[in-house]
Amino acid sequence: MNKPCTWVGAFAIIIFSYTLNSCSVRRGQDITQQDFVPKNKHVLNGQKVFMANCNKCHPGGGGGLGPSINGNAAPGFIKRFQMRHGLGVMPSFKKDEISKSDLHDISKFLHAWKTYR
Amino acid sequence: MNIYYNSHSTFSWIRNSFLFLAFLLFPLINASCFRMRASKGGGQIGVIPPRTINPSDIALQVGYQIEPVISGLTFPTAVAFDDENNLYVIESGYSYGESFSEPKLFRVDGNKTTLIAKGTNNGPWTGITWYDGAFYVAEGGEMDGGRILKITKDGTITPLVSNLPTMGDHHTNGPVIKDGYIYFGQGSATNSAVVGTDNATFGWLLRKKGFHDIPCGDITLTGQNYTSKNVFSKDSGSKVTTGAYVPFGTSTTAGQVIKGEIPCTGSILRIPVAGGQPELVSWGFRNPFGLALSPDGRLFVTENGFDSRGSRPVWGAGDVLWEIKKGLWYGWPDFSAGKAIQGDEEFKTPGKDPVKPLLQKYPNDPPKPTAIFAVHSSSDGFDFSRNPDFGYTGEAFVAQFGDMPPGAGKVLFPVGYKIVRVNIDNGVINEFASNKGKRNGPASWLKKGGLERPVSVKFDKPGTALYVVDFGILKTDDKGSHPQTKTGIIWKITKK
Predict the structure, then answer these.
(1) Which of B106, B305, B333, B456 is the most exposed place for a label (fewest CB within 10 A)?
(2) CA A99 → CA A46, A86, A111, B45, B47, distances in Å?
(3) Residue B25 placed within a domain
(4) CATH number (domain holding residue B135)
């Protein structure tokens, strides 16, 4: 009986921490190094889709109208969940705006971007 | 046993209740995150510090260096180079915050300036270009309407077109010259086509009571009207209702047709280089500020997107880089970056009603943008790299003036205050020059000596040096904008 609650609780703690993290971290692009070069077509596509949909509120993954996501430690599936369903003032992006494969490519780009930074 | 069971049960209940509460609180905190937090714009500084200059406070892409060329300018907005690669700069003569002075054109030699020409109390001079032995300047027209001026080196000023309808929020911008025509931008009178109390805060509504936006072609309204305080009444409780494309305090009805006119607001127009009547190039813009030609001769424009202000606030609208196609309508006031804003949560200001459309039908589907910049970044003047010796050939280098909250809308962190480069083939934006440190912001906010508010960039004749026009310090607060004279700087970026 307690097991489902524990899983729900663990999930809650993860996204709770993620939320606080999102609200507090402010890290922009570090430009004191070589250019970012996408290592494959998924990362490149993720970068393009990010630029078209996400960059305006999280420029370079940093804070702006929205919080910074560069320092966000949440797992990719939670970020994709938030992109698809929205939370708070963050809008949702339906499948006709960002396809499932594009969502995964954004995750790949954000991972590569974090490694680059 | 019983006791153990009870205490264990109580512990589990407390633990699970806490976790459940945390789960419930998550969306609440997330939702509250934006609305509960104060705006943290880069212009929201307390005491205004003196302008200091320290190039080492600026981070550049590897292999580049930056140096100040001249400082102490008052509201510089653009530079140009003559055939001998001499540097010229214009001071705008007007800044938000109702700061009026005389616009000026200077020649810059070392750290000395020589006055070439002086305008009247009708700034801001927003842009300058050199063509066939003369300068061409866009005069914003805050007092008497926009003009395109031809200025010769002896200081003679000849207006090529006058009385352009840009006495509102945004001005006559540009210009660039292509195929014997001068192309220029016409800013909109308002944020989103409805005159409101925000325009009185800007200042112009109290001077030009009947001024409003003018469409370039006939439009049919949905009849949306907005109630606001009557800024012309001494009765603080007095209200007025205002529709789109009409003067403050005038209502509209569904199906009402507003006749198009040339010249209009929110558009790209052109005139022959010798002067003449303006012709329509394209329309449906909010504030088309920067204009530049790509190396292959295509015309591009930066558009400052909606603010979250006034009677019809629009939230989350990024600035845009557009390629200009003749005859097209680009979406303002019902689209942002090619996306319909009607009822979309993406554009709904937190705590306000969803945005409703103003037009019953659209001239065409808006095109796809080349790139979308950060919301409130104020992505302004730009230029294209043409010389492989500088690098990034074909990319657009864009100056980002930076946010202006709280008037323009709240931001969680400073936005802009840097130079970005844009790959116009895929819309990818990268930083090129910005202030060092974990926090982004203007030098005055960071208490450093780097970039303040870059408003335009221009490559020199050979294309090996990028000149950055830094407008200077502009503080923003609840009362509006507070520009600081003699804080403008011209920077020069070269490859090491």
Answers:
(1) B106
(2) 11, 15, 19, 42, 48
(3) no
(4) 2.120.10
Q: Give 10-residue mean pLDDT values along chain A (117 residues).
A: 57 55 48 83 98 97 93 89 92 95 97 86
Angstroms from A93 CA to nearest CA on chain B? 9
Nearest to B33 among A2, A67, A68 (CB): A67
Q: In chain A, which residue's Cα lies nearest the Cα of B343?
A: A91
Question: Which residue among B26, B376, B440 sits closest to A65, beta carbon to beta carbon?
Answer: B376
Give Cα B481 distance to the centre of its chain: 14
C-alpha to C-alpha distance for B427 and B391, rounded to whole angstroms: 18
What domain range includes position B360?
A: 70-389
pTM over 0.80: yes
pLDDT tens, residue by residue, B291-314: 999 999 999 999 999 999 999 999
- Which of A22, A31, A54 would best serve as a mutation to test chain B binding (most B beta carbons within 10 A)? A31
Q: Determine whether the interchain pair B30/A33 forms a contact, defined as Cβ–Cβ distance below 8 Å.
A: no
Q: How much is the ipTM here?
A: 0.90
Q: How many domains does chain B have?
A: 1
CATH topology (fold) of A2-116: Cytochrome Bc1 Complex; Chain D, domain 2 (1.10.760)
Cα angle for residues B65, B68, B72 (degrees, 5° grid): 160
Confirm whether B410 is domain-assigned.
no
Query: Is position B477 within any domain?
Result: no
